[in-house]
Fold:
Amino acid sequence: MPSRHQPVLMDPVLDALQPRRGGFFVDATVGGGGHAHAVLSASSDVRLLAIDRDAQALERARQRLEEFGDRVQFAHAPFSAIESLVEEAGLGPVAGILADFGVSSDQIDDRDRGFSFQQDGPLDMRMDRTLQKTSAAVLLANASEDEIEKWLRVYGEERFSRRVANAIIKQRRFGPLLRTSQLADLVARTIPGGRSGHNPATRTFQALRIAVNRELDEIDAFLHAAPRLLAPGGRLAVISFHSLEDRLAKHSFRNEARGGEFENLIPRGTVATQSEMRANPRSRSARLRALERSSVGDAN
Ligand SMILES: C[S@@+](CC[C@H](N)C(=O)[O-])C[C@H]1O[C@@H](n2cnc3c(N)ncnc32)[C@H](O)[C@@H]1O
Structure:
């Protein structure tokens, strides 16, 4: 099935990466292939390494990008391994890297993946079902109340983290939590609904997804490695969807820029226009940041 994912912040991403220059680009989160398609279309001199840890996403991207033939290479891997993936690709110095963090609409909309509290499905949430062994159900079945509380508080920024963790532990006495609807109902019974109309399970699902996929460790490792893979004048663009992701990118880019070898191109980040937010609600929480490696001779 073709991807239904609508890429966010397309124009600012292309402004940041400048693929018209041609060269070797990396899409570390190719997903449905929307950004990758635009990068490859910008110049026939673009070659692209397309990475995703989700085999299904990669297959969709493969079909979407078929027209570009051997200008694209695919890698089924986590982006924390970007350094060795770039080396293995053997395509030379990197002109631009994009990472569009989080999950795609294709993943959320597929009830069998267990990411959504709006549809019943297995409580899975693994982005890579071939290599990752621990689903959300397994994680919840084995964690202590304190561990669960910490994930909810830190990864979900859930005010009622103790109450929800305690309810999960109590529920376990009656049998394992195996379905998304079981967890969503339990949270709805345990805490009040949000004022903004958000489903009360939103933060719990975010927290669990981050814990299952070790998302912040992945981003940390990626942000550590990616800048140094850039050729002089090369650019790194990252899109985050919540404050935990954005904080990592903001601090990393600020630190890199302090050394003088990199320039923080958009210190406050770029957000979607009102019209994009209306057309694509996912873009409402997106923020783009970009970093450039100085050209030879630019560094002090
Ligand atoms: C928001 S989507 C990307 C959408 C894409 N930019 C497009 O235009 O269709 C995020 C993708 O990143 C992948 N992903 C998330 N974390 C990852 C990681 N640590 N390593 C590799 N891929 C990851 C997900 O599987 C998902 O397909």
About this structure: The longest helix spans residues 243-258.
